[in-house]
Amino acid sequence: MLGGLRHTIKLNTLNAEYKVEQAIKEGDYMPYYNMMDFMFDWFPFMGFGTVLSWLVSLAVAYLVYKDAEKRDMNGLLWGLPILIPWVGILFLIFYLVMRDSGHRSLAGAGLKSSATANATPQEILDGRYARGEVDRETYLQMKQDMSDVKEDSST
C-alpha cells in the first residue's frame, strides 16, 4: 500500500516539474518570491525606523515640556503622554489646542500670567501706574480708597 502512495507522489512531483519547465519555455511563468526572501534583504535595517520614531517622540516631548513650563502649565503632565506611541500624537494635538486657548483666555481677561492673578490689589495698582495706565491723581485716590477699606475692615 505504501509503495503505491510513494509511486503516486513521485509521479505528481515529476508532473509538476514538467509543467513548470513548459511554462518557462513558453514565457508564461511568473517568478515566485517568498515573503521571507524580502524580509531578510532588509533585516539589518529594521530597527532604525523604531529608534528614529522614539528619538523624534522624545524630542517633541521635551519641547512640549519646556513650552508648558514656560507657560506655567505642568510640563511633566503634558510631556509624558507624548511618549506613548500613537496616543502621543493625540496628546500633542490636544496640548496645542489647550495651549492656545489658555493663552487667549488669560489675554482676554487682561491678565499676563498666573503671577498677576495671585497679586494683591496694591501690587496690581502699582503695576498699572508703572505702565502708565492711570495718572498720578487717580493712582493716589485709588491708593487712599484701598487704605480706607483696609481700616474699615480691621475695625
Give the key terms.
155 residues; 8 helices; 77% helix
In summary, what is this structure?
Helix content is 77%, strand content 0%. With 155 residues, it is mainly alpha-helical.
How does the SSE layout of this entry go?
Layout: H1 2-26, H2 35-42, H3 46-70, H4 75-79, H5 87-108, H6 114-117, H7 121-131, H8 136-154
Tally of contiguous helical segments: 8
Binned, the helix content reads over 70%
Order of helical and strand elements: HHHHHHHH
Sheet of most strands: none
What is the global morphology?
rod-shaped
Beta-strand portion reads under 5%
The CA-CA distance between the termini, in Å, is 117 Å
Unreliable runs, pLDDT <50, ≥5 residues?
none
Kindly report the average pLDDT value: 75
Structural class: mainly alpha
Gyration radius, rounded: 38 Å
Give the tally of β-strands.
0
What do these coordinates show?
The chain has 155 residues and is mainly alpha-helical. The protein has a domain at 119-154. The chain contains eight helices and no strands. It starts with a helix and ends with a helix.
